[in-house]
């Protein structure tokens, strides 16, 4: 019995001695391969960014390249342990099919990420509006896209939902048109009000001179004459213009005596009828 146990132990020891170098080399392949995959994917990403001038595409390509290189490293390490490559591929194929069936939503997000990167609807730094959510694109990852909202919140959107939703890229073009409407009373000087508006929008540095600013009557309302100012600004100055220019117009109108009307109700009482109505109101 003891001789049999010693024989088994000797065989295990021989197997361990033969297998240990392969195990150590496989571990080294995994460690070195991991860092090499990280470095190579980084340099490949830089090359892609330099070639395409698109940081978003480079970042996405970096993630894809790292995963692909890591899979290659794992296959190499397993084959070094004596596992046949054909067997590894068969196992990966079977596992891939099982994973695809169980993670179909994640795979649709992956496909959505590829579509977003290839079609380039937007890039990092663009201000977009997706399904009512507005934010600056922080990153496009394999399965999701990260947005930073104007009030500095982080929104994580699945790539598949972005592909399926209408996308408004606010920063796609360098300039944007703005329409601002200012109401003045019917008793105010219309031509004077137009001149004030023309001077303000001509002198303000945010307003672009080309295309030229247009000032005119937009509507004759119930209690006001509505003046329309149509002008162009850089996309990044849109919100600043929306806040600052109406304030300048209000101050200028106040200074020049241009009345900005508000809703009010005028009641006129006929004198002949009031002599009969007032006693009734008093209870006489």
TrEMBL record:
| Location(s) in or outside the cell | Cell membrane
Asked whether the UniProt record includes Membrane among its keywords, one would answer yes
SUPFAM superfamilies, alphabetically? Mechanosensitive channel protein MscS (YggB), C-terminal domain, Mechanosensitive channel protein MscS (YggB), transmembrane region, Sm-like ribonucleoproteins
What cellular component GO annotations does this protein have?
plasma membrane
Q: Which residue numbers delimit the Mechanosensitive ion channel MscS C-terminal domain? A: 180-260
Which GO molecular function annotations are given, in alphabetical order? mechanosensitive monoatomic ion channel activity
Q: Which InterPro entries match?
A: LSM_dom_sf, MS_channel_1st, MS_channel_C, MSC_TM_helix, MscS_archaea/bacteria_type, MscS_beta-dom_sf, MscS_channel_2nd, MscS_channel_C_sf
Which regions span the lipid bilayer?
20-40, 60-79
> Please, which domain of life does this record's source organism belong to?
Bacteria
Give the bilayer topology.
Multi-pass membrane protein
- Name-wise, this protein is Mechanosensitive ion channel protein MscS
């Amino acid at each position: 019995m003891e001789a049999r146990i010693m024989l088994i132990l000797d065989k295990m020891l021989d197997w361990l001695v033969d297998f240990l170098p392969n195990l150590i080399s496989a571990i080294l392949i995994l460690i070195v391969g991991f860092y090499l995959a990280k470095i190579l994917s980084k340099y490949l990403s830089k090359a892609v960014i330099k070639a395409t001038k698109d940081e978003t595409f480079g970042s996405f390509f970096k993630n894809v390249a790292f995963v692909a290189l890591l899979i290659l490293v794992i296959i190499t390490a397993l084959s070094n342990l004596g596992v046949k490559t054909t067997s590894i591929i068969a196992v990966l194929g079977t596992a891939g099919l099982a994973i695809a069936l169980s993670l179909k939503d994640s795979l649709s997000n992956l496909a959505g990420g590829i579509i977003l990167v290839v079609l380039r609807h937007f890039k990092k730094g663009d201000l977009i509006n997706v399904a009512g959510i507005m934010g600056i694109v922080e990153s496009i990852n394999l399965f999701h896209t990260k947005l930073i909202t104007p009030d500095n919140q982080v929104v994580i959107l699945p790539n598949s939902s972005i592909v399926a939703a209408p996308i408004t890229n606010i920063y796609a073009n360098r300039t944007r048109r703005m329409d601002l409407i200012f109401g003045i009373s019917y008793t105010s000087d219309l031509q004077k009000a137009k001149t004030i508006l023309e001077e303000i929008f001509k002198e303000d540095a945010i307003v672009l001179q080309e295309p030229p600013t247009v000032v005119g009557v937009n509507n004759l309302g119930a209690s006001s004459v509505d003046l329309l100012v149509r002008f162009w600004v850089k996309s990044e100055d849109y919100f600043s213009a929306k806040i600052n220019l109406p304030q300048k117009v209000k101050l200028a109108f106040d200074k020049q005596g241009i009345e900005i009307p508000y809703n009010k109700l005028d009641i006129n009482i006929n004198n002949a009828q009031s002599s009969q109505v007032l006693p009734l109101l008093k209870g006489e």
